Amino acid sequence: MTRTIRLAIGSVILAAAVLALKLVAWGLTGSVALLADALESVVNVAAALAALVAVHYAAMPADANHPYGHTKAEYFSAVLEGALIVIAAVAILHQAWGAVWAPRAPDQPALGLMVSAAATALNAGWAAILTRQGRRARSPALLADARHLLADVVTSLGVLVGVGLVALTGRLWLDPLLAGLTALNILWSGGRLVRESVGGLMDEAVEPGLLARIRTAVAENGSGAIEAHDLRTRHAGQLTFIEFHLVVPGMMTVESAHDICDRIEAALRAEIEGATITIHVEPEGKAKHRGVLVL
C-alpha cells in the first residue's frame, strides 16, 4: 500500500470522526450555524471516499488501454469534491434562510462549542499533514482534500466565534447570518477547486516558473545540438509530460544525437520528479530559429 493511499484512508477515518463531533455539537446547541458546519463535514466524508478511490486507481500502472497511466483519475476526484461543496453550500443557505424567520437561542453553547473546537483542531492538524505530503507526492486529490479542510477550519473558527457571540449577546440573527457566510465561503472554495481540476483535465501547460526551469535544463545540457523548439508540457497527476523537437547538425551520427538526448533527459528527471520526456530529433534544415537556443 502506497503512502498516498494510506493518507487517503486516514482522511476517510478522520472525516467521519469530525462529522460525528460536529453533529454532537449541533445536537447540543441546535445552532443552524453549527448545522451548516456539520453539513460541510458530510461533504468531507464523501470527498475523502472519492479521493481514496481516485488515488487507488491513479496508482495503477499503465496498460494497453491506458498507455499514459491512470494518474488523471485524481482530477476527477477533485472535480467531484468541488461539485459536492457547491451542493453543501446550497443546503446550508436553505437552512440559514429558514432560521432567519424562526431564530432560536443555542442550548448548552459552552459544551457544544468545546466539541466543535475539538473537531476543528483535528481538521487543522490533518490539513497540515495532507498539504505537506500531497506536495511531496504531487497528488491533486490529496492537495484538493487539504485545501477543502483548510477552508473548513477557517469556516469553523468563524462559526465558533459567532455562536459564542450569539450566546453572550442574545443577538439571534447572528446565527443564520454566520450560516449564510459559511455557505458563501465554501462556495468560493469549491469554485476554485473545480477550476484548478478542470485545468488539469484540459492539459494546461506547466506553470511559468517550472517552464523556465525546463528551458534552462535543455539549454545547459544540450551541448552539440543547435536548438530545441515546439516545447510542450502538461501535468497528469504526479506525472509531468515534456516533449520537444531537438535540432542537431545534419552529419551527426544517431549515436551522438542519442547521447545528447540522454543527457537532457537525465537533467530534466533530476530537476522534475515524475518527468516523462519525448524528444524528436531533427536535422539542422528543420531549425525554426526560435524556442530554446542550446548553449
From TrEMBL:
Residue ranges that the Swiss-Prot or TrEMBL entry lists as coiled coil:
none
Q: What is its main location?
A: membrane
Q: How does the record say this protein sits in the membrane?
A: Multi-pass membrane protein
Alphabetic keyword roster: Membrane, Transmembrane, Transmembrane helix, Transport
- All residue ranges annotated as the Cation efflux protein transmembrane domain in the record: 11-202
Localization recorded for this chain is: Membrane
**Chain ranges of the Cation efflux protein cytoplasmic domain:** 211-284
Which parts of the chain span the membrane according to its record? Answer: 12-36, 42-63, 75-97, 109-129, 149-170
**InterPro entries, per the entry:** Cation_efflux, Cation_efflux_CTD, Cation_efflux_CTD_sf, Cation_efflux_TM, Cation_efflux_TMD_sf, CDF_Transporter
Q: Which family does it belong to?
A: Belongs to the cation diffusion facilitator (CDF) transporter (TC 2.A.4) family.
Q: What is this protein called?
A: Cation transporter
Name its species: Belnapia mucosa
